[in-house]
Design a protein that fits this description.
410 residues; mainly alpha; 3-stranded antiparallel sheet
Length: 410
Amino acid sequence: MSDDDFDKSCQFIIKLGIAAHGYGPSTARLESYLIRVADSLGISGVFFSTPSSIEFAFSKVGQTWQRTHVVRLPICDFNMAKLSHTGELVDNLTSGEMTISEASDRLDQIAVLRNPWGPFSYGLSFVAVAVGIAGLLQASFWETVASGILSLVVYIIFIATERIGGRFSESLPFVSAYVVGVFATAINLLVPDLNPILVTLSAIIILIPGFQVSVGIIEIIDNRVEAGMARLMSGIVFLVKQFAGAWLGIASIGLLGTSNAEFATPTFFFMNDVSVGLYIALLFLGVAAAYQTLVRDLLWVLLGCTLSFAAVVTSSAYLGVEYSTLIGAIIAGLFANIWVRMTGRPTSIVLVPSITVMVSGSIGFRGLVVAAAGHSDQGMDMFIQMFTIAASVAAGLLVSNTILRPKITL
């Protein structure tokens, strides 16, 4: 390989890594994928990824010295549409259907593609998730309506922080939870039976980092301690900011004592009527839209969510929360691995939503609320349970990958 070809290959992999990092793959998947691309281009590569950085090291085959490149990156959101297009691009490159120059141009095109779910649909995804969760938590009619309306407030704040950026972006968890807490408690003055904590949790739950905590523990178990600890601590700090904002928002109206301890007992709540199907459908559709899932992948995502969620619900009748979550994670992992073998598409497209609908971030939030209300023992037990359930998710995915070895994709 000439020096010029080597330079072009290295520059493309750096560009690919930065782009893919911004679309939300896990550390393990991104590193494995970059190694696969480097091998296909005939160069040796070593890569270390964290939620906020990537280290690249390249060398020609047979050489001992390396060329390194380190880049710091913002913590990413999930965008399954662009992740899917990026996976297809690399498949075309490694199969010889596309040159490096063409692939680089295609990366630029993917970066500016419009999301399949526009601003209006994306806003509705906040409402769908909030209403779905409120319904599954056995919220009353007015609590469900209030949750849906206040989720739009969360969406407006979210869009504002994205556009303004900087320090205001870092304040998203506190500001959104504080504003929702104030509004929910103010509504409680007009509707005395309304539970402001339930409404606040339902409205902000789309931002609660339960999946991030779970992925952090998965990466730690997978011996990627630096990336896992960074992701885990980031999730915990985000959760604490949300709690502080919600607590202060409720306290600002002087009604902190209205919190309902019964609300914080189980992990899942279900109503004994046909409306539960509607709430589950809203939750699944909201998650799929929030992750910008392509329309052609929508049915597969909904099927994966249904299988994992049904496994958790069915097994919870006979097993504890941790064991039922383990079963759900095994089903989600097996479905994702089978789907990837059938389609060759990125695993994250179906795996991330399936895990999201059963992760435990809300348990940690409720644990903090219960502790603040004076039930410190119960609150801390629930907060610790969040980590136990996240570990169950990690164990389930490890078991599924042992049963059926996953294909290397994003």
